[in-house]
Amino acid sequence: MPADRQRAAAAYGDLLHRVFPAMAAGEDTEPAPKVPEMELQALWAAGMLGVGGETRGHGSVRILDFGEWNRCAGPDFLNAEMELDGVRQRGDIELDPTAQDWEHHGHGANPGFNKVMLHVVFKEPPHGWYTRNSLHREVPILTIEEDVWRRAAGMPRQADNPETERCREPLRHMGAAEIAGLLQAAAAHRLENKRHLFRAKAEHLGPRQTWFEAWAETLGYSANKVAMQMLARRAPLAQLGKQAESILFGTAGFLVPVLPARTSADARAYHRRVWDSWWALREQFELADPHNLPWVLSPVRPLNHPQRRVAALAESAARWAQIEPNLNAARAKTLAKVLGAISHPYWDTHCTLPSAPMPRKSALVGRQRITDFLTNHVYAQDDSPAAWASYLALPGGAPASRIARTAQRLFGEREDLASLLSLGYAHQALLQIEADFCAAQPCAECLFPRQLCQWRMPAGRA
Predict the structure, then answer these.
(1) Is 254 left (phi over 0), alpha (psi -120 to 50) or beta?
(2) Beta bridge partners of 87
(3) What's the distance, CA 87 to chain centroid?
(4) Does residue 115 or residue 416 have the better pLDDT?
(5) Residue 89, strand partner residues
(6) Which of 24, 202, 214, 430 lies at 20 to 30 Å from 163 by C-alpha?
(7) In this predicted structure, what is the pLDDT of residue 336?
């Protein structure tokens, strides 16, 4: 990592520790926020939640093979392998938000769960609780600590904070250079978090699949990034080949035997071609109802409909040999051109499978998607000094509503605010600050303003 980026990330980390030491140390007494179970499964399958730990009363466990992520009814992961208290064994693994969900879902009376050898939960079970199967045999419980899965899922705690002058007071008296230093430090910290998570994931999935999932997540926008990432996992790049379109649309659940009567002839012809290819692959890739992907259809702009996002991912998979060599900061311009050139004769003019054609073509991959991919993934993984310098020069564009709200909360009506937000790293920095401080604790208890008065970037360019 370049010295400037390392220095900036370390400076922000120091501020975080001094402002909120309990959070930095991973200590937390708040109840766990609700996380979709499928998202927890995706994090587990990628190795993002670790590969073991201490079970309740059964010694330490180490996962050797996460097994097959189940597409049908039954335990979440099949034919996995683990080492429990030094003894190797194969079986199934079930994940639940709480240990009690095992009984709530009827697993304890279901013989289909008798091969489960490990019950992974995300909240410490009540005293005296144990998981048992229909044979009345105890199933070892592994609890994933909240700070572990929260970091992996990127889900900070939420606090209801009204707008306050407490943070604005020290920021009001900081010069533009000092503000830029703070924002660069927060952005560097955010890059390092992303880099760490990417590399941990790549250890289990391989770099190629990890990049594919990162691009899928980017294509999904905020509303469908989780569903798109899960789709890329359920239909991995290595299994797509020439059938990427059929496999991805079918696995996504977007192919139906009969289209609405109003569907145009060109839509019917396209659907028939994809459906005929999917039919032979359906048994291998189709997801049963309990595992359907969590698509968000409203409020989503027509051009950002999930079906169109899946089409972009399918075309990307077909061109991955062109994309892959350019996944670094030095070739960012070439990568942008390759991604921007992705098109499809049907999806360039349609929003959904049954929709009428649009009057004019629209880019399948927009400029903002490419910028977001560069900002959140490409520059995060490239640790060269040149990449850091290029990252700091990326334009910001119009800030999203969440970023604008955080900027207003922290800076109020500073005259130079527009200039401060003109670069992309400032947007990333505000997201990091909002997650670490504004969303993490009540404003009345926050030490951020007091410590900020004493905080300074170390010498050297941020």
Answers:
(1) alpha
(2) 84
(3) 34
(4) 115
(5) 82
(6) 24
(7) 96
CA 216 vs CA 205, 296, 311, 330: distances in Å: 15, 15, 11, 22
Q: Partners of 82 in the beta sheet?
A: 63, 89
pLDDT of residue 1: 52
Q: Would you state the pLDDT for residue 440?
A: 64
In this prediction, what percent of the chain has a pLDDT beyond 90?
Answer: 50
Contacts of 278 (CB under 8 A, 6+ apart): 246, 247, 249, 250, 255
Closest residue by Cα to residue 167 from 182, 187, 181: 182
In sequence order, what are the residues at sequence separation of 6 or more whose Cβ sits closer than 8 angstroms to the Cβ of residue 66?
44, 45, 47, 77, 80, 93, 204
d(CA 40, CA 294): 13
* Phi/psi of residue 364, nearest 5 degrees: -75, -35
Closest CA to 82 of 55, 56, 114: 55
The token duo for 195 is 């880099």
Phi and psi at 383, nearest 5°, equal -100, 25
Question: CB neighbours of 399 closer than 8 A, spacing ≥ 6?
Answer: 407, 421, 427, 430
**Three-class DSSP category at 119:** strand
345/316 Cα distance (integer angstroms) = 14
Q: Give Cβ neighbours of residue 143 (< 8 Å, ≥ 6 apart).
A: 53, 56, 120, 121, 122, 123, 124, 125
Cα–Cα distance for residue pair 351/249, rounded to 1 Å: 14
Encode pLDDT of 368-414 as tens digits: 899 999 999 999 998 888 899 999 998 888 888 888 888 888 887 77
Region 77-101 average pLDDT = 93
Q: Does residue 395 have a cis peptide bond before it, meaning omega lies within 30 degrees of 0?
A: no
Residue 166 has pLDDT above 80, yes or no: no
Average of pLDDT values for 34-56? 86
